[in-house]
Amino acid sequence: MRRNRRDDWSRRLVSEHRLSVDDLIWPVFVVEGNGVRQEVASMPGVSRVSIDLLVDEARRAADLGIPAIAVFPSVEPSLKTPDAAEAVNPNNLVCRAVRAVKKAVPNLGIICDVALDPYNSDGHDGLVIDNYVVNDATVEILCRQSIIQAEAGCDVIAPSDMMDGRIKAIRQALDSAGLEPVRILSYAAKYASAFYGPFRDAVGSKSALKGGDKKTYQMDPANTDEALREVALDLAEGADMIMVKPGLPYLDIVRRVKESFAVPTLAYQVSGEYAMMKAAALNGWLDWDKAVLESLMAFKRAGCDAILTYTAPEAARLLSR
Ligand SMILES: NCC(=O)CCC(=O)O
Ligand SMILES: [Mg+2]
């Protein structure tokens, strides 16, 4: 076995998987203001930026060859309400950010989450009635949220809420609004995970959630067959691409999904995964560059077609060397 590993040229020759910049999606955080850059404490190296700086970062991403960004708004607490009304305001932060980026960098793909958690004073992805996240009333708002984001120029609508039946409803809503080309990336197998902690710091939804959890709609980490049912439903309802989330601890799910459905399969290397690697690297316990590339290669090996990762710009630079 060691003969093929003996030299760099033969290692390259027999290498089975390749990671490329074309596999990367960069999640970015946007805040109100001008010239604003706020470091996210639990994600060293990641910032929330105002729209003017986001446009610069988007240009940088496109120049690096990154195909798409995913834009997440950090919404002012005063705009969060129990009915999440700001989610359907066509002039909300995320819609203004999308319009600005699309205008400046038209060839960069833009992905927007569809879910109510940035706007809901309860911190939940759906409407809360009598202490329960209700399904169909939430789906109705998600459809309106999808339309305003798509009208702002978002190329890919990514429902991350885990309500039942929302893919079909959103597809119909987009089509009726003349938005047929807009793609749907479904967060189909999204687990109720502790690894989202730093993200909730970044978008300020942790305090709203008040220590609650999302177990009545996100999946139980004990389950894998259930992920296949979720994916089958979302594909039947019209999803163009599906996502597994979190990433590294759930690569068994990626593998089963890819083998079962052979459709575009993405995974999200989430904030907690980023924070773990970063903390170790900052302590001198891990070689950051090598750990980034190895972790992303693991997603490819499991069957991912693309990876959402906060390391995207650094990974792109490392891959171009
Ligand atoms: N809907 C997007 C997320 O929940 C992101 C999670 C993370 O990066 O931890
Ligand atoms: Mg589902």
From TrEMBL:
One of its GO terms (molecular function) is zinc ion binding. Pathway: Porphyrin-containing compound metabolism; protoporphyrin-IX biosynthesis; coproporphyrinogen-III from 5-aminolevulinate: step 1/4. The active site is at 190 (schiff-base intermediate with substrate), 245 (schiff-base intermediate with substrate). It is an enzyme of class 4 (lyase). Belongs to the ALAD family. It comes from Paramagnetospirillum kuznetsovii. Pfam families: ALAD. This is Delta-aminolevulinic acid dehydratase. It comes from the Bacteria. GO terms for biological process: protoporphyrinogen IX biosynthetic process. Its EC number is 4.2.1.24. SMART domains: ALAD. Mg(2+) binds at residue 230. Homooctamer. GO terms for cellular component: cytosol. Coiled coil: none annotated. It catalyses: 2 5-aminolevulinate = porphobilinogen + 2 H2O + H(+). Keywords: Heme biosynthesis, Lyase, Magnesium, Metal-binding, Porphyrin biosynthesis.
